[in-house]
Every structure is written in structure tokens, then in C-alpha cells.
Amino acid sequence: MSVVNRDQASIIPTVGDSPHAAPAVAIALDDITHDVELLVTCIPFARMPDIKGVVNRLPDDVPVADTSNYYPHRDARIEEIDAGKPEGLWVEQQLGRPVSRAWNALLQTTLAPRGRPKGDADRLAVPVAGTYRAAKQKVMGLVDDSGFDPIDAGTVDDTWRLQMGAPAYCTELNAEQMRRALELANRDVVLARRDAVLSIIASWGPSQSFFEDIVALNRAAADLHSLIDQ
Fold it and tell me: What does the pLDDT look like over 60-75, one tens digit per residue?
């Protein structure tokens, strides 16, 4: 698995920490098109257009999986998404090729320590959305290898169900709960809920236990307590 971010020297200490994933090696951006079976993009959402040239050099049968999320306070406003365009569809249009979305609905502090073997009672789920079934299946297989249950979340048009403000987003659910959360998603309220959550987070002081509290905040915003308590 190759990681693309900053430069090789700065990223080497950050890769390869998960015991459930294959060893990671930092390489130069221009080298990622050599012997690639699947590309996972882990960059700020608004920077996706910057890598179109690199992605275009990949063979057509190499799946692309995107882990990013649109955060208006960081990325600046993207009118199409604020008007309701699903984030995954916007990414596809920027890159000019099919993209599956995965791992974006999981906190980074959950990804490294919370992976579990298949069948473990405490295994969390990761929703995966994409239009092309063969590519999505490859991505779901990698999600499984990383220690999480992959849940089919539909096509690229359904990626709004994985966005910030949706019940599936960063709420740390098991497979059964995740399927139900995806069903409970209401497109009309996702964007409003996202902005409300961001407003609350902006009010937090430095003593806030950020990553623990953000899960609780997302669950409360989506009113998932009855689902989780079942």
C-alpha cells in the first residue's frame, strides 16, 4: 500500500502502524503509477483536482478509493456540494474516472487501534460506496483486510449517506447498526446537521477530549442512542 502526502522524508514516520494492513512504503508522487493494484487517496478534499494528472496515468482497471471529507472551514466553500451534490460524485468528476468512497466515515484515531479480526464481536463497520461493482468489491476486500466489516453503501450517488452529518459518519457502529444507520439517513437534513456539528466543535475549548467527544456528538446529532442501545 503506497501513501501519497507531502514528501517521502516527512511521511515515513507516519506509515505502517496498523497491525492489520500490509506494510506501507512512502514513495514519490510520480512513482505511484508503477505496479499499482489499487490507489487510496488520503489528501484534503479540495486538493483532489491537483492529482488528476497522476490518476490519469493509472491503467483503467485500477480502482481508486477516496478517504477524504469536505470540511467547509478548511477547504473553503464548494458551491456544488453545498447545493446538495454528493461528495463522491464531485470527486469522480474532478478525477474523471470512477471512485469508491471508503474509510472516510471513520475517525483517524479509530482506524489504527480499533481494527479487529473477522468475526470479532467488537469489530466496527466501514461503509463503502461506488458505482462500479468490481472496483467496489476490491475496495471492500481491502477494508476487510484493514480490520473492519465492509458494508455496501450503494453507488456514488449515495455517498451523501457517508458524509459528515449523516448517521453513518464517525459514529463507530457494528455491521448491523451501520446498515440501519445508512437506511435512516435523510438527505434533506445532512448538510444542516453538518454545519450544526461544525459550529459546536468550533466552540470547544482546548481541554475538550476531541476524538472521544466527537463520536458522542455525531451520535447525538443523528439521534442514534436507541439504535446503539438495542
Answer: 899 999 999 999 988 8
